[in-house]
Amino acid sequence: MSQYDFGTINPNEKSGSQLALDLNGFRDAVNSGHKGAERPTYAHAGMQWIREVSTERWDLMLFNGGEDTVLRSINPETSELIKLLTSDVDGLDDLLALTVRKDAAGSTGAAILPGGSPAQRPSTPVNGMIRYNSTTGQFEGYRGGAWGPISSEPATAADLWAFQPIGVPIPVFTHLAGVVEPPKDKSYRYVKLTAADAYNTGILTSESVVGSAPLVQANAVISLAGSPINGLTISLINTERRSLRAGNSGALENDQFQGFLIGDGSNLLSRLTSITYSAGGTATAHIGGASPLTRMNDGANGAPRAGDETRAKNIGATYYMRIK
Asked: What DSSP designation does 182 have?
């Protein structure tokens, strides 16, 4: 027997053989730790006993006269100690609630960090605090007198897209085999600065493309929760074929060429038909015949290249920009 008590021994009533049986039963109970599914009926305050929960779990219990406390648990089949749940330790859950919260899964779950908007940060932070920023969708920590993001990406330093700053256009040679665009399934997010592109599905709104080449104007509004530039209008420079120029960030300018006329002057005087004068004394010469203004060829460097836009020698690249 695992649990046994012979009660009060009356020498006038208990025979020697019966006493031997009682002592043997109690010996077995002591040697087995008073093991059983329930607390022994004869338990007194301060008594330890083993609760047999299952074939894979025994609990060492301490009875205080009113209730039992689990001291430790063991798997009798493997002799391994079983981790205690925080709920098994009186007051531990209340203590943990002052720092972190745990989910209902117990020891196999996850800790839930305190979180909220930047306005809900602790009023008197100390170095080492961590929390979840619900506005940016990132974990953040306090150190050196300031809050800063704690990146959960990337898993390895190979994911360089995770290290790019927000709002910086990044050119990519997407025409080369093996070159891939920034991923769309991470905690960060990029926009492709191209109109009507599937890469931008769900993150742009109010997209607009007006004009014709070379004076196309294309823009859209960022629509991505958690982005610090959510709701702002951006230029889709891939569609516009617009180059970047230092200074005056965000100012849009069309192409321009400092104006002047070039001509060879051939027979210019012979084609002068008349000269008129305005009331202010300004003279205007009137030239007859074909215009003397032509594209000049110096005879050595070939004919000038001309088209519908002014541009430098270049190579195209696809621009992306991180927005979250």
From this structure: P
